[in-house]
Design brief:
Helices cover 27% and strands 38% of the residues. It is α+β, with helices and mostly antiparallel strands and 259 residues long. The chain folds into two domains: 101 residues, Glutaredoxin, CATH 3.40.30; 108 residues, Immunoglobulin-like (Sandwich), CATH 2.60.40.2550. Strands 2-1-3-4 form a four-stranded mixed beta sheet, with helices on both faces. The protein has a four-stranded antiparallel beta sheet with strand order 8-7-10-11, covered by helices on one side. It has a three-stranded antiparallel beta sheet with strand order 5-6-9, with no helix packed on it. The longest helix is centred in the first third of the chain and has 32 residues. It is globular and about 50 Å long. It starts with a helix and ends with a strand. Pfam families: DUF1223 (PF06764). This is DUF1223 domain-containing protein. InterPro entries: DUF1223, Thioredoxin-like_sf.
Length: 259
Amino acid sequence: MVGKRIALICIVLIGGVTMAFKVNFKSKKEIISKASEDNAPIVVLELFTSQGCSSCPPADVLLQQAKDDYGSLVYALSYHVDYWNYIGWKDPFSNPEYAEKQRKYNIKFKNKSNYTPQVVVNGKAHFVGSSSFKMKAAIAQYGAIKAENKITLSNVKVEKESVSFNYKLNGAIANKSLRAVLVLDKRTTVVKRGENRNKTLANNNIVVAEKRIIIEDLEGISSMKIPTAVEKDEKLNLIVLMVNGVYDITAASKTELLR
């Protein structure tokens, strides 16, 4: 009799553990599946990073993992800031405009100063970019919220050193603008000085150009130059975001550029 009770308890415990794994897996699948719906949820992850920062490489890896794991739900952007350049290594992707963008976010968040690695989610929240726990929590939270707007890209063309595209918008557009971003898929760099000296860094999702587009109608055409630093055989993506007056991201769309 005692043996039967022990066996029954074991069966219940095993079943409970199995259900727990199934629930976790199903939850992740449900988040990903929503990306195919109209006005689907979006998770825009903006990583502020630098090749001169020793704590940044793990964040770069984590951002790429999030992109790989969640597919079309996640929009990954790496902004290389310039304020680490003084330490001896000038990050080839660094741009003072990206540090200024980060500063505006931190003023909004009432954060005392810029820091790296920092991830900003949909322009609404931030955390240390190397925290896998916070990354998963943010994707779960914002991946369950329907986007306020929708952007549809079409007629995307690459001609010589520029890209042109048409866009169509859904939802309220008052006090909002678009940000068109060119994103280099991957570049490997041998860092010779600074905190990461003698290391070979594989950076991903690198923002190489950005343009603000004033919204005048629900449909429009725009174009932007491709930086000469981008090699012709390198994979390049176009991401277009809609942003409101307080830097919240309300829509996103992306497409690979065929060069």
